[in-house]
Structures are given as C-alpha cells and as structure tokens.
Design a protein that fits this description.
- This protein is α+β, with helices and mostly antiparallel strands.
- The chain folds into two domains: 109 residues; 54 residues, no CATH class.
- It has a six-stranded antiparallel beta sheet with strand order 3-6-1-2-5-4, with no helix packed on it.
Length: 189
C-alpha cells in the first residue's frame, strides 16, 4: 500500500476530500497536510513497535574494547532485541558476555514518513498494518476536524483496536518471547 493510498483512506474515514472542505486558507491546508503526515508516521512506528512485525537478522562480531567489555556496533533502526544470550544495548552499542561472531535478531522501526516522502512510497509493513495505520492517523486527526465528535473518534479507535488485535495474533511468536521469556522467569529452560 502506498503513502497516497493511506492518505486517501484517511480522507475517506474522515469523510473529507483530503481536508479540502474543512479548511479556509492555504496555510491551514498545509498545517493539516503536515499533521496528516506526522500522524501516519507515528501510527506506523507504533504498530511496528507494538507488534514487532519488522524483524531483522544481522551477523555481529563482539570484540573486547579498551574497557575489557565485548561490544559491537548497533544496527540502524534497532528498537528491541530478540535475544536471551546476554546481549544488551547501551549508549548506541551492543554488549555481550563473551567475544565471538553471532547471529543477532532484532526489531526495527519503518522508514520515517516526512513531508519529503514520495506519495509512491510503500511502508515496510504489510497492507493490513498500513490499514490499521490509516485508522490510527484518522483518529488522531479527528479532533482537529471534528472537535467534540467523540462518537466518530471512538468508531475509528475501535476499528484500529480490532486491526491491532489481529496483528498481535499474526505476530504472536515474536511478542510472546518478550512477555513470557525464560529471562523473566516465566518459562523454564
């Protein structure tokens, strides 16, 4: 799904033609366009964070530094580690209990959506996650366009929540490890 498609869905969900009927001046239009782009970016990041749907692997070599600790460069975009082997992040680096080369599994945020992002850009998330992002962004913008319309906001958030439940179910293997891992003492090795 492209950024343009997500924007069109938001316009449809808010019952407006990309905000045109709801604005008085060009400056207001650009403020709303900027708010829509920020809302989409925040929604995509939240979905990626909460469902851990953007999983990556890297082979990293941990070597001893001058302080005697074994460390490696942190991969770009990392926000969570899926590892129970004593690997942890601190100050932009990864640390391990021992030296060596390891396959490292981690989760990343999608590429940031900005005002310079092309309308043909396709977020790394699947179409269902992008659909959820459209509902989240529409709910975020609802208060600007329809102040006091709590029913509309709740309808959008209910649809967003429904999609998030399905995304959680789809990615349950990824999220269970963080909640019930041996490292937290819930699952015994």
């Amino acid at each position: 799904m492209t950024l343009a498609t997500i924007c069109d869905k938001i316009g449809f969900l808010l019952e407006t033609d990309i905000f045109a009927p709801c604005i008085d001046t060009a400056s207001e239009e650009s403020k709303l366009d900027a708010a829509m782009i920020k809302s989409i970016d925040m929604a995509l990041r939240k979905i990626a964070r909460d469902t851990k749907c953007l999983r990556r692997e890297a082979t990293l070599t941990f070597t001893a530094g001058s302080d005697g600790k074994f460390s490696a460069e942190m991969p770009d975009g990392l926000f969570a580690i899926d590892s129970r082997d004593g690997i942890y992040a601190c100050d932009g680096r990864l640390f391990s209990d021992k030296a060596g080369t390891y396959t490292f599994v981690y989760y990343v945020y999608p590429t940031a959506v900005t005002g310079d992002t092309a309308s043909t850009y396709e977020p790394e998330l699947d179409d269902y996650a992008c659909d959820a992002a459209a509902y989240a962004a529409a709910a975020e913008l609802c208060g600007r366009l329809y102040p006091g319309d709590n029913a509309r906001y709740m309808r959008l958030m209910t649809e967003y929540d429904d999609r998030m439940v399905r995304l959680y179910e789809k990615n349950i293997k990824n999220t269970l490890g963080s909640l019930f891992s041996a490292g937290r003492g819930v699952i015994r090795k």
